[in-house]
């Protein structure tokens, strides 16, 4: 064989190897940039408004056709597994739905970043409180921790059951209605009891008992469509916080809850999501979620300073009606 022929063969082999590497690095299924933007917007706008981000994301993924549970295959047609079957367990197939469900949780990191940037003073106060240099910061940290523990325990215990039984449009519809009625009742209660038990109106002044009570209220938000921020705000109402302070406490309590959920989801199926969708649109969705969450938080605080929760309750009822017409009948 001539030297030219040898070089040609070597070049072909190198090209084939490069093609194989590029193919291995390519996402299995394409998540369009528009889908990433939409999911980022839905996450960012709804995460801290009392209308349920999970419920809206379930609807969004369904509308965009990201609910397929058909097992994905590689370029050779071989089935792909998130967790390969063993003698004792059947295994978990790699699907679009698994990747999409993971994606919508991980982009919560963008919403977390927005709250960190907007409420860095309160976070700094809690850190100073740990060092014993701020009594109010120490009390605020205590209350955030106490309000987080119940929902963290319940979430770890019930997460698989919730994923199997409650991640559906009918469940979201029911939660939207129940949540709306709860908000209307809480708003009437707040107006009837205005001025009673409202001292300094600051989350750091909550008693440990009231902080734990808000934590137990958060457990209701494990039902998709309920809204973590909504039940936290209602709990804040009943604990004597004004609407704005109840909302701000819900933002702070949301940080460890959302961060914990994103971390667990990343460890559980983050690599599978990246394998299916790739990195690019994950970064895009997270960035859009951060920007839209910052705007939504600013809007909510301004709105609540003049109004209450009733408008959001009516929105939930209207959404439940629309979803019933579209997906049930």
Please outline the helices and strands.
Layout lengths: L2 H23 L7 H15 L5 H11 L17 E3 L8 E2 L2 H11 L1 H11 L1 H11 L4 H31 L3 H24 L15 H11 L9 H11 L4 H35 L2 H25 L5 H19 L1
Helix pairs in contact: 2-3, 2-12, 3-8, 4-11, 5-11, 5-12, 6-7, 7-9, 7-11, 8-10, 8-13, 9-10, 10-11, 11-12
Characterize the largest beta sheet: strand count, sense, and whether it forms a barrel.
Answer: 2 strands, antiparallel
Tell me the radius of gyration: 23 Å
- Range of helix content: over 70%
- Element order, helices and strands? HHHEEHHHHHHHHHH
Summed up:
This protein is mainly alpha-helical and 329 residues long. The protein has one domain (28-72, 79-328).
Give an account of the 3D structure:
This protein has 13 helices and two strands. The longest helix has 35 residues, at 243-277. The chain has helices spanning 3-25, 33-47, 53-63, 96-106, 108-118, 120-130, 135-165, 169-192, 208-218, 228-238, 243-277, 280-304, 310-328, and strands spanning 81-83, 92-93. The protein has 329 residues and is mostly helical. A two-stranded antiparallel ribbon has the order 1-2. A hairpin with an 8-residue loop joins strand 1 and strand 2. The chain has one domain (28-72, 79-328). The protein starts with a helix and ends with a helix. Mean pLDDT is 87; it is low at 3-25.
List keywords for this structure.
single chain, 329 residues, mainly alpha, two-stranded antiparallel ribbon, 13 helices, 72% helix, globular
């Amino acid at each position: 064989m001539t030297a030219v022929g040898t070089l040609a063969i070597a070049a072909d082999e190198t090209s084939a190897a490069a093609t194989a590497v590029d193919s291995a690095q390519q996402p299995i299924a394409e998540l369009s940039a528009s889908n990433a933007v939409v999911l980022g917007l839905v996450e960012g706008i709804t995460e801290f408004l009392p209308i349920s981000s999970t419920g809206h994301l379930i609807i969004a993924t369904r509308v965009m056709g990201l609910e397929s549970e058909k097992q994905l295959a590689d370029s050779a047609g071989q089935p792909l597994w998130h967790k390969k079957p063993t003698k004792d367990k059947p295994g978990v197939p790699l699907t679009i739905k698994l990747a999409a469900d993971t994606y919508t949780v991980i982009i919560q990191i963008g919403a977390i970043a927005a709250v960190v940037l907007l409420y860095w003073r309160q976070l700094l106060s809690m850190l100073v409180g740990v060092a014993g240099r701020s009594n109010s910061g120490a009390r605020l940290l205590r209350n955030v921790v106490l309000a987080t523990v119940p929902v963290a325990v319940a979430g770890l215990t019930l997460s698989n059951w919730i994923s199997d039984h409650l991640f559906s449009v009918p469940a979201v519809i029911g939660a939207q209605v129940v949540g709306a009625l709860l908000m209307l009742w809480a708003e009437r209660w707040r107006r009837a009891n205005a001025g009673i038990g409202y001292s300094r109106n600051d989350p750091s002044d909550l008693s440990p008992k009231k902080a734990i009570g808000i934590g137990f209220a958060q457990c209701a938000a494990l039902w998709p469509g309920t809204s973590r921020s909504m039940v936290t705000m209602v709990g804040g109402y009943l604990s004597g916080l004004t609407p704005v302070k109840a909302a701000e406490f819900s933002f702070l309590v949301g940080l460890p809850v959302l961060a914990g959920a994103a971390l667990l989801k990343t460890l559980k199926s983050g690599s599978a999501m990246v394998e299916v969708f790739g990195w690019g649109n994950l970064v895009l969705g997270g960035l859009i979620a951060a920007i839209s969450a910052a705007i939504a938080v600013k809007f909510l605080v301004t709105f609540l300073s003049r109004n209450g929760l009733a408008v959001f309750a009516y929105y939930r009822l209207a959404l439940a009606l629309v979803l019933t017409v579209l997906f049930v009948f």
